[in-house]
Design a protein that fits this description.
By secondary structure, this protein is mainly α. Helices cover about 65% and strands about 0% of the residues. The chain has helices spanning about 20-25, 35-40, 45-85, 90-120, 125-135, 140-145, 160-174.
């Protein structure tokens, strides 16, 4: 028995020829080679077990082949699905995303400081009106020229901080 299934050996049993004719005839015909050998030759259990396990192994390999191929194809398909939909991310992509997120967070925080420096100026209404009158693509340069995007302890402003600051200032007016 293998996993609850009875193995039936069809065809010739290699050692069946050695069994005497009188012992071959039986009321209950043997179902497997191992059974034939055990009844006919009176073989010890080691020989029967060896012969029986050889047949079970061959049957087991044949039965497992479709399951193994299914597992391989399923694993490959699942990997493709996971990486293409973004469920799984490689370390390189994760590092790049982390760098970009931290850069955006720093720019947003520095833009808040820039807005605070704008609020500290004496003529902020006039400066805000000039900023709104400036073309959208030149507003970052205007903020840099005014010096609001220069952070304490720094000599110059970055264009990304100035652009984020100009966006925030434009939202203040609206």
């Amino acid at each position: 028995m293998l996993y609850g299934m009875e193995l039936r050996v069809e065809g010739n049993c290699p050692d069946w020829e050695r069994v005497p004719q009188a012992r071959r005839a039986a009321r209950n015909p043997p179902q497997s080679c191992a059974e034939k050998l055990q009844r006919g030759l009176g073989a010890d259990s080691d020989q029967v077990a060896k012969h029986s396990s050889e047949k079970e192994t061959k049957v087991n390999k044949q039965q497992m082949k479709p399951f193994a191929w299914g597992a391989v194809v399923g694993a490959v398909g699942l990997s493709i699905l996971m990486f293409s939909t973004g469920w799984a991310v490689t370390s390189g992509v994760a590092e790049a995303d982390a760098r970009e997120m931290s850069r955006a967070a720093v720019i947003e925080n520095l833009a808040a400081i820039c807005v605070a420096q704008f609020e500290a100026t004496a003529n902020k209404e006039e400066n805000l009106n000039k900023l709104i009158a400036t073309d959208t693509w030149q507003r970052g340069s205007y903020v840099q020229q005014q010096g609001w995007a220069i952070m304490p302890g720094s000599d110059s402003a970055t264009s990304q901080v100035a652009a984020a600051c100009a966006m925030r200032l434009a939202q203040l007016s609206g």
